[in-house]
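Slide 14.
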Amino acid sequence: MNTSLTVPAPTSITVSDVIEAKLPVAYEAAQKAIAECYRMDECKGWADKHAALASYARQANDDSLRVYAVRIQDRAVRRLGELAKQFEPNPGARTDLGPAPTRGSVAEDAGISARQLKTAVRVANVPESDFERQVQSDDPPSVTALANQGKASAPLKPRNGKAAWDALNDLNVLARHVEHGDARIVASLISRDRDRQALRQKIAVVDAWLDRLVVALS
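Slide 15: predicted structure.
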């Protein structure tokens, strides 16, 4: 999926612009439909209580509306972060129209708080393949969970330097081993369920670390 976005020439955005911003037609229709469902409980007036009970049970077990809503919000926050990242975070050179807008000034003009901006940028930091895999899952993560994944690592302190170099060397060794290795053969060497579970836990630790490394590199 191509997520490249083009930012037009800087213009002043006001809170009023955000409030009056046009929403997609399908989005507005969905809002109205859900609001109508919330306002009117059709089942409440049904004479057939068994049918009403069955309908309530089906609604209670249906998670599709929540899943779709989470996906829409996740994608909206990520797009916001992608746009924000196209502005420099700190003041830069002046333009013919005055000082060049910064990430913070654009967000402030649009009524976006510093916290919302930071969250959006962090969500945009999550590698696209990881983001799509999670958002398209049966249980998409919340915006907060995605933002936690996109946190930039703190700068390395001198005392962590050796450990960092050791990790980089180990990563190079691992890459050489797995480049032409067959994962199925490695898996066949582990026969006991307990050992397989322990290996899965180690893989999860490595996988999470690699995700953080990808974010830091970007």
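Speaker note: The two ends are 18 Å apart (CA to CA).
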